[in-house]
């Protein structure tokens, strides 16, 4: 069992309690907490942030005075110790801070109107989040890993740099927190009855009523998030799109809709009856005011058949073209399923058919890649050799089963290429490595030629060239599209270790079943579109079940 902690916010102190292994408690003045954070790192960053926000909401009038007292306390402590307090970060410039651990690095850059929070992960992963200065002053850093001391130092840096504009920043921060009309609830914040905010441990949510639409927003960690709109009619009949919306938010949205011209349609009648979740009942009176087609749900059986037609026809057309024009068929797999999905939607009137086109596109691309691999392996033969030394004598072979083969692990070479990957923050570079090592027979010496090479592609930081001795006996040739990249790794091994490659030495990768490899990839070619359809169909059935259950809960008793 691990230690357990609890924090309680009183008038002027925070009571920290440790429940196990021994019951101990300590009181910390609020000013000291604002100056130095939680004592002995007893609280995770999210708890520290919530405590600061609770103090801010509760003592809004005293907040500037509390910050000034905390600043004075920090400076007094620094003067007494004649050194800067211990920090887990460093300031590299007037407006640049750095921190991190052995796996991840972070930087914060303070510009004129915003703060750029940058994450640098392994293998060139990373992203960037821009946070307005006023938002930082109001709510603290958007970067959850920012040390408490860093946030405070940045706060002071902004005030010292913009001392003339400081009242303006405070005014903007107060506007963001709704300092005038804000209404605080245990699980959400309401701004004037037209917008709401709430959060959990890792995410921030908001909802706002604009015109005749409700806008739902989600802000997750590492720049994840999204936004969508929902009509009043859809909200009243089905409830909120955001399943984590607090019951109080749902009630206030219903009240806001009812207050606008008497509800949808401006009829001035009473607000619709609400079910257990706060959404309006799905009775006939609500359905009659919805946009055309919004409640025309097609029968499930015909919808599944239509989706199968979209997936099957796009896969069949691309497969037929792949027999004569594989490259053109691959590009067609990107466009044709989407076009068929939209055509099916216009013909039968269900948006789910557009989604089926997207699933057909993913399944079609995977099917084309599998067919390419099948064609490469099926174009050659499978050979069984006594020794890997005979491999160069079989240029027609694409699959090898070898009795005598060993890996010269000390003679490894590698090559690197940079590729661009898209993430929530935009394109980011990533390094892909190709590794190669010789496959040799027993008793092989370095002055002899290398009869074959084992290669692999590595992107996740581990050594992919660690097969067992039994794995080395079953190999297949690598993909034609990757051959040049792997030959760069082979050339690096020859240059670094002074080894020579035999003419016609095959470039191989491990396979559990070399003889049956073509059949395996042919099976993938045929089944991948069906798997894509199955996933889509399960999604449609699950969504239909969820919708009917939601309508049943919203129906009046």
Notable traits:
557 residues, alpha+beta, 14 helices, 24 strands
Radius of gyration: 32 Å
- Cα end-to-end separation: 47 Å
As a percent range, the share of helical residues equals: 25-40%
Number of strands: 24
Polypeptide structure, described:
- With 557 residues, this protein is of the alpha+beta class.
- 40% of the residues lie in helices and 26% in strands.
- It has 14 helices and 24 strands.
- It has helices spanning 30-36, 45-58, 63-81, 133-139, 148-161, 166-176, 232-238, 247-259, 284-287, 300-322, 326-348, 352-378, 483-497, 517-554, and strands spanning 4-9, 13-20, 24-29, 89-93, 96-100, 105-110, 114-120, 126-132, 182-184, 189-191, 195-199, 204-210, 213-219, 225-231, 381-387, 397-404, 406-407, 413-423, 426-440, 449-450, 452-458, 474-477, 500-501, 507-510.
- The strands form 5 sheets. Strands 15, 16, 17, 18, 19, 21, 22 and 24 form an 8-stranded mixed sheet that branches.
- The longest helix is centred in the last third of the chain and has 38 residues, at 517-554.
- The model is unreliable at 82-87 and 263-296 (pLDDT under 50).
List the helices and strands and how they pair.
Blueprint: E1 4-9, E2 13-20, E3 24-29, H1 30-36, H2 45-58, H3 63-81, E4 89-93, E5 96-100, E6 105-110, E7 114-120, E8 126-132, H4 133-139, H5 148-161, H6 166-176, E9 182-184, E10 189-191, E11 195-199, E12 204-210, E13 213-219, E14 225-231, H7 232-238, H8 247-259, H9 284-287, H10 300-322, H11 326-348, H12 352-378, E15 381-387, E16 397-404, E17 406-407, E18 413-423, E19 426-440, E20 449-450, E21 452-458, E22 474-477, H13 483-497, E23 500-501, E24 507-510, H14 517-554
Parallel strand pairs: 15-16, 20-23, 21-24
Antiparallel strand pairs: 1-2, 2-3, 4-5, 5-6, 6-7, 7-8, 9-10, 10-11, 11-12, 12-13, 13-14, 16-22, 17-19, 18-19, 19-21, 22-24
Helix pairs in contact: 1-3, 4-6, 10-11, 10-12, 10-14, 11-12, 12-14
